[in-house]
Amino acid sequence: MTDASQRPPTARLAARTGDLERSKIRVMFDLAEEYDGDPVRLHVGVPDFNTPEHVIDAAEAAAREGHTEYTQNAGIPELRAAIAETLAREDGVEVSPEQVTVKNGAMEALSLAVLAVAGPGEEVVIPTPAWPNYVNHAVVAGANPVEVPLPADEGFDLDPELVGEAITDDTAAVILTTPSNPTGRVYDEDAVSAVADVAADHDAYVIADEVYGRLTYDREFRGMASYVDHPDRVLTVGSCSKTYAMTGWRLGWLAGPQPVVDAVSRLGESTTACTSSVSQHAALAALTGPQEPVAEMKAAFEERRDYVVERVAEIPGVSCPRPEGAFYAFLDVSDFPGTSFEVAERLLDEYGVVTAPGDGFGEAGEGYIRLSFANSVERIGEGLDRIEEMAHERR
Ligand code: PLP
Fold first, then answer.
1. CA 46 – ligand 1 centroid, Å
2. What is the third-level CATH fold of 17-46+293-394?
């Protein structure tokens, strides 16, 4: 036996830590911090609004009234009931409060959902381009992420045949995100239903990441569990982060079949046990209080979406699928020399604009950069001016 005190401090790391890929959004985040000056930051998905005042007031009152202790793993009953009511009212998804578990952001809900349903060696199907964290959720669970690149020439719409072909008896779950990060696409309900049917045939779950569900511009949004034939196979994930400008409060949830919800609550017990009690009271105020702030933020995002679409159409050699939801535009920059990471690096180094390279969202994203329009029209305009400058200089 080797003497543990003789080992170099980094020698004993579990293999899975080496298997984790760093998100290229975070890599750009670090590069932007090293940038000398104040770049136009169009890389992160954080609403540029303050959390609504009444939510902050509720949090303050909760802290003062002594709601400062651990809560049940699945969250305070009032909040679970409010989430169930919100899911029914806004998304048409019918669940009981007991079928909701409150977690530290959608991120924890997604990660624990994958841990709950995908065992070592099983597969998690991820249509891409997609939010990069899903891959690591699978890796941490010891499962294999199976990427299904969606066709760019169809604006990265969900292709049920392609995704269906990737689903086998080894598949534990398929992760569908609508509206999509990074493309802003809202998937057709028929396509989602077709994928859900195949998943059910193979005894697999659909993990429905609907954190941007309240931010759709051209179409009405309905939660996947409200219209597929097998709602009992859908794990619905939501969050206060994007809807209420509450990313730092870390408040999300998972709703769905009782055994999975209970397993997720149990899995969280040894790490965080519960979400911050103060954040839970803030979320309760967000969901049950006035919804005007949501409408105002959505209107601002829609105006910016229109502006981005108009401006991108004028830039030679650059285009993007029209974002139907969320606050991202996925720009095709394949005309520019280099990989999408090199394009993003050059945009930062030479033009002072921070974006996220498309290949960070899976191989389907190579040749693209993601631009977040969670920023003022002025700053977005400045960023697009510089992208336009780059497009002209390249010619
Ligand atoms: N799902 C998607 C598609 C996201 O883009 C994000 C955050 O960017 C999350 C989940 C995580 O959200 P939360 O802040 O609730 O953890």
1. 10
2. Aspartate Aminotransferase, domain 1 (3.90.1150)
Q: What is the mean pLDDT of residues 38-61?
A: 95
Is 36 buried (19+), middle (13-18) or exposed (0-12) by CB count in 10 A? exposed
Q: How far is CA 274 from CA 71, 224, 234, 252, 259, in A?
A: 6, 26, 23, 11, 18
Q: Are 255 and 93 in contact (CB under 8 A)?
A: yes
Task: Tell me the C-alpha distance between 335 and 211, whole Å.
Answer: 32
Q: Which residue out of 24, 51, 185, 241 has the highest number of ligand 1 atoms within 8 Å of its CB and is therefore the one to mutate? A: 241
Q: Does residue 107 surpass a pLDDT of 90?
A: yes
**d(Cα 312, Cα 333) in Å, to the nearest integer?**
11
Nearest-CA residue for ligand 1 atom 12 is 106
Task: State which fold the 53-288 domain adopts.
Answer: Aspartate Aminotransferase; domain 2 (3.40.640)
The whole-number pLDDT of residue 6 equals: 61
Average pLDDT over residues 274-298: 97
Give the span between the Cα atoms of 312 and 319, in whole angstroms. Answer: 6
What CA–CA distance (Å, rounded) separates 107 from 137?
A: 9
Residue-range domain boundaries for the chain: 17-46+293-394, 53-288
**pLDDT confidence of residue 24:** 83
- Answer yes or no: is the C-beta of 247 below 6 A from any ligand 1 atom: yes
**1 pLDDT tier (thresholds 50, 70, 90):** very low
- Residue 241 Cα to chain centre, angstroms: 10
pLDDT tens per residue, range 257-284? 999 999 999 999 999 999 999 999 999 9
Q: Is the pLDDT of residue 220 over 60?
A: yes
